[in-house]
Amino acid sequence: MRKADIANEICEQIGIPGKESMEILEKFLALIKETLQKGETVKLAGFGNFFVRQKNARMGRNPKTGEPVEIAPRRVVRFKPSQEFRRLGATKE
Fold first, then answer.
1. What contacts 86, CB < 8 A, 6 or more positions away?
2. Domain count of the fold of the chain
């Protein structure tokens, strides 16, 4: 499902114009991104939590040459589904 499909579902189920539903979806996603960029957790009851993890630097390998390469430290976004979401069978454990 794409972002446009989600906006269309919102449009049909709530009965608001398509352009408005896309704007709402865009603002919702932007708010999640901004919150995660600050390093804060986004908790959606009944759905799950999005949070940022710090990954340390480590040694990796260039798959083409086999040469060792240092992988820089970075921040990654993780998602942990809620118990309710897992009960629905929507995720694999």
1. 93
2. 2
